[in-house]
Fold this sequence. Notes:
Elements (H helix, E strand, L loop, with lengths): L1 E7 L5 H20 L5 H16 L1 E10 L2 E8 L9 H17 L4 E8 L10 H11 L5 E8 L16 E5 L6 E9 L3 E3 L3 E12 L6 E8 L5 E6 L3 E7 L4 E8 L13 E9 L3 E7 L6 H9 L4 E7 L22 H7 L6 E5 L9 H12 L3 E5 L21 E8 L6 E2 L24 E6 L3 E5 L5 E8 L2 E6 L5 H4 L8 H12 L9 E7 L2 E7 L8 E4 L5 E4 L2 E4 L2 E7 L4 E7 L2 E7 L18 H6 L4 E3 L6 E4 L7 E2 L2 E4 L5 E10 L3 H20 L2
Amino acid sequence: MNAGQIVFDPLLPWVVIYALAALAFAGVVLALWRGLKGWPLRFLAGLVLVAALAQPSWQMEDRAPLSDIVLMLVDETASQRLAERAGVTSDAADTMEAQLLARPNTEVRRIPVPDGEGDAGSQLMTALSQALAEEPRGRVAGVVLLSDGRLHDLERLPDLPAPMHLLLTGQEDDWDRRLIVKNAPAFAILGEEVELTLRIEDEGAAPDEAMTDLQISIDGSEPQTFRVAIGEDHALPITLPHGGLNVIEFIVPEAEGELTDRNNRALVQINGVRDRLRVLLVSGEPHAGGRTWRNLLKSDSSVDLVHFTILRPPEKQDGVPVSELSLIAFPTRELFLEKIDDFDLIIFDRYKRRGILPAIYLDNVRNYVEKGGAVLIAAGPDFASADSIYRSPLADILPAEPTARVIEQGYRPAVTELGQRHPVTAGLTGADTWGRWLRQVEVEPVSGEVVMQGVDDRPLLVLDRVGEGRVALLASDHAWLWNRGYEGGGPQLELLRRLAHWMMKEPELEEEALWAEPTGQTMRIIRRSLTDDVGDVEVTGPDGETVTVPLEEVSPGRFEGIYDGPEIGLYRLKEDDLEAVVGLGPAAPREFIQTIASGAALEPAIDSLRGGILRLEEGVPSVRNVRQGRPAAGRGWIGLTPRDVFETLDIRQTPLMPPWLVLILAAAMIVGAWLREGRS
């Protein structure tokens, strides 16, 4: 294809040429005013000189036309696989591509758009932006989207160079029922109600139903069924049954004719935490370690501490009038009979029998442990004496018996082989650099687990479970030396913190435990055990299929395995007698939040260049050419804007006023004007 045009390559700036042309014109006007008969020749001579300064040329271009480009994005996300949409979309894309390729001078870029990473949903506009960035915008004649119109990146809509059309999948009589969890906290306080708001909605051409069933299951238990209204918010108060992760599953049974049941269920995972831990600390007498316990417990804002130190035992007779004593009476009845069940942990720090706590009160403490309470004994020299707290009803629950010997010598506390696997002491490394303790009460274990040892490998820290409760015995009152940094100190705060939380049954410190940490569709299965070996974990998916996952020991007492869940939903884990549940994926996948095909979200962008939204159930539209700015869609057709773009292969220029022609013409006009005016 050849094309020609006149082009200019001025010798001087256009401003100067305009000025010279004005000057020449003024001379012609002056000659006309004075009546000189050669003024026309003067005018022609000036015109020739001004034209010569502009240097006009005839330019011939050898052009190769470039084809128009049509971008066709095919939505292949999860919502497009509902009902018969995938087949309809594929057939329509093939038909449309063939129709476009049959047009002269047209190329088609067919771009499949799969699911976004994670739960990103349909990223149609992101794919369109990337496609436009890879193509010359001046050649794009149109954009065709084959989709259900449900996209999740509308904010990334690019500046469109040509009309965009949406060929809508789905049927006009589609309908769907979905379950919505409006608010689901990540944490909730044990013993307090947390309110979830649920809503069940029908969309599309739904049947006229006012009620439906709602099933609720906690941690994979047998679901409870309730009858609820459709289209209303329902406030659901829930009290978490235990600490740690609580998995709550909501299910709405699939209704006949609805588009999908993938949005009929929701998983809510809430961590149960204690509000405030109530601790009773009873110190037998003031000593250097008493402040350590107090500081440890007071430093934790989640701990409510009640601390009593017995400064004036009943046998003390020093003649001080009672009216002058500022000390308060020890509220033994209130604490050990009436309020004992309100405490999560009772600590006896160097306490001995002095008649303050009658045997019936200590017997009540024993009952408190057997029913689920926790007692920690921090033993001092008095634990080995005749007044030892062991010589009381508490002996039935204590895991070790004193031998009446107190060892006064320096030693380094050490974690036992069993203790290296126990969550209370596991990972407390650096024992070679720990500071020494200087006293230990010799005890003989009668039950429980020895996790730390002292002088000559004698038991130092013994843990035990009694009934539903827990008991710990620390056979030394010198833990405070670590806190003071004596000989380098040691992990005193971490040890005592773990000890207190283990006794209060925090899930992360259970000796035998099975749980999973989900990340997207992947779970890390964790098994903690005091044994040297554990079995494989059976994982049962939402579809009921069971898979066996082997575990590897990653640290003493900790075994892990990785499992990729094939679908979103509730998974049940089982190993020996331990069971756990975990939810993979979001509570409501974005692709299934709204499933009814609709072009409402894209309508403003499509209308901006007068494109169209057409349903594929009415057939694949034909394609026409339209001029830019004209309506680009109608009943049964969509329009493309031809770009008429070309590539220039060669350019040839021929001067219209070569120098020799300018010289002849200018000289002839000037001489002619002179001769004509000279005869006058």
